[in-house]
Design a protein that fits this description.
The chain is built from twelve helices and eight strands. It is an alpha/beta fold. The protein has one domain: Alpha-Beta Barrel (TIM Barrel). An eight-stranded parallel β-barrel has the order 1-2-3-4-5-6-7-8, surrounded by four helices. Helix 6 runs parallel beside helix 7 and helix 11 crosses helix 12. The two termini are 13 Å apart.
């Protein structure tokens, strides 16, 4: 594929998939002219050597990419020191893996990660965690800068945006990833506007029936994406965290943003090119 085919993607649209699925999904991504957000599976981080990473990085060298760090049962602030140490290891491994892809790119690659906050924490508890998390993240943020990457902290089980705001204020090089489904299903603050005040640099998009984090195709649930997405669609990469083939969600974006083409011309160009 010629690099020029992706130069028309001024606004990056990525499909989320596991690192072990990237090569087999590449024809679909290329046909839709979209990139990939690569979830770095823990087993792969433990077993792949530099040859494997170089090979995959070469195969997707002309594809827009971002990354998602492991998160299941991980927490840098866990009271179990073994879990906290494993979380640190996974984040360091993620940064090392992403460095194979960032070295030949002109802009820093985004790496999404979770704070690890357990479900059901109060706002006071979340704020208390944020102060301790800052010190844990300082070294990782500095290392990312040296390797041509930037961490994007995603909202998950935070009850409201205040704890994330505190972390972002203390670590200016850290960026924010907004997940509307997480806000709607997991938080006490379902209104997107409160979270958008954090100025997200990365957007996770999927739909939900309203109760669970269903990862439905866009337009198949109840989330009010069109109340905020037209304005934000030109400000940050759009990551389709939907199950299965992303074609339907790409079409939904194209059709839904068409009436707002004056607000989102770059997305429309990306979705209609070719």
């Amino acid at each position: 594929m010629m690099r020029g085919a992706y130069n028309s993607l001024i606004m990056r649209i990525h499909h989320s998939l596991a690192v072990t699925k990237v090569l087999e999904t590449l024809p679909v991504l290329e046909s839709l002219r979209i990139g990939a957000e690569i979830y770095l599976e823990p087993d792969v981080l433990e077993s792949w050597h530099s040859e494997s990473w170089h090979s995959l990085a070469s195969a997707v060298s002309e594809l827009p990419v971002s990354f998602h760090a492991p998160f299941w049962n991980l927490d840098l602030l866990s009271q179990d020191s073994g879990v906290a140490q494993l979380t640190q290891r996974r984040l360091e491994q993620t940064l090392h893996a992403a460095s194979y892809f960032s070295e030949a790119r002109s802009t820093p690659v985004h790496i999404v990660f979770h704070s690890g906050i357990p479900h059901g924490r109060t706002s006071v508890q979340a704020l208390e965690r944020s102060d301790r998390l800052v010190s844990k993240l300082e070294g990782l943020v500095s290392a990312a800068r040296e390797l041509g990457a930037v961490w994007c902290l995603e909202n998950t089980h935070e009850p409201d945006p205040r704890s994330l705001r505190r972390i972002l204020e203390h670590l200016p090089e850290l960026r924010y990833c907004f997940d509307a489904a997480h806000a709607h299903v997991f938080s006490r603050t379902p209104d997107p506007s409160a979270w958008l005040e954090l100025e997200p640099a990365h957007l996770h998009l999927n739909d939900s029936a309203g109760v669970y984090d269903d990862h439905l195709p866009l337009g198949m649930g109840v989330l009010p994406h069109l109340t905020w997405l037209p304005e934000w669609s030109t400000r940050a990469p759009l990551i389709l965290e939907t199950k299965g083939d992303p074609t339907a969600s790409v079409a939904w974006l194209r059709d839904s943003l068409q009436p707002h083409d004056k607000k989102a011309p770059r997305v429309l160009e990306a979705l209609t090119v070719g």
